[in-house]
Amino acid sequence: MTNAQQFLQRFTQAWSEPTPASLSELFTADATLHRPNLPQPIRGRDAIRAYFEQVLRARPDLKLEPLMTATGPDVAFVHWRLQATADDVLVEWEGIDRFTLQGDLAVDGLAHFDPAAIRPVAVS
To answer: Where is mean pLDDT largest: 92-96, 106-110, 116-120?
Structure first.
């Protein structure tokens, strides 16, 4: 199994029952996380963990379903569907993450999705 395949296996497992710890442990200590709904990248595993703490505290029912994956020598791609409830309404949206890997950990994570799609469930 390649490093990218190991990463995707851990990614899928982490999102099966997401916690800030399991999600942040996918990243190196000095990783960077880019989200289109944030003005600046998140830098460092501790900051990534704090980000996921905030997200999961606001949306504890947040679930990610990988729809398709692809890998290269030091890269992993995930086409996913996320869902969460807001005011008792289920909201779903799709996006794509690209992870640049260092071993089987992400040193850079870049998400692409329509930020307008998450407005009903956005963390303020």
So the answer is: 106-110
- H or E, element range at 84: strand 75-86
A 10 A CB-CB count for 30 gives 11
Please tell me the distance from the alpha carbon of residue 16 to that of residue 73, in angstroms, as a whole number. 25
SS (H, E, C) 6-52: HHHHHHHHHHHCCCHHHHHCCEEEEEEEECCCCCCCEECHHHHHHHH
Residues 6+ apart with CB under 8 A from 50: 20
Q: Tell me the backbone φ, ψ of residue 14, rounded to 5 degrees.
A: -60, -40
pLDDT score for 41:
97
At 6, list the tokens.
Answer: 């190991």
Q: For 63-104, write each residue's pLDDT tens digit.
A: 999 999 999 999 999 999 999 887 788 888 899 999 999 999
Amino acid letter, residue 41: P
Distance between CA atoms of 62 and 120, rounded to whole angstroms?
Answer: 13
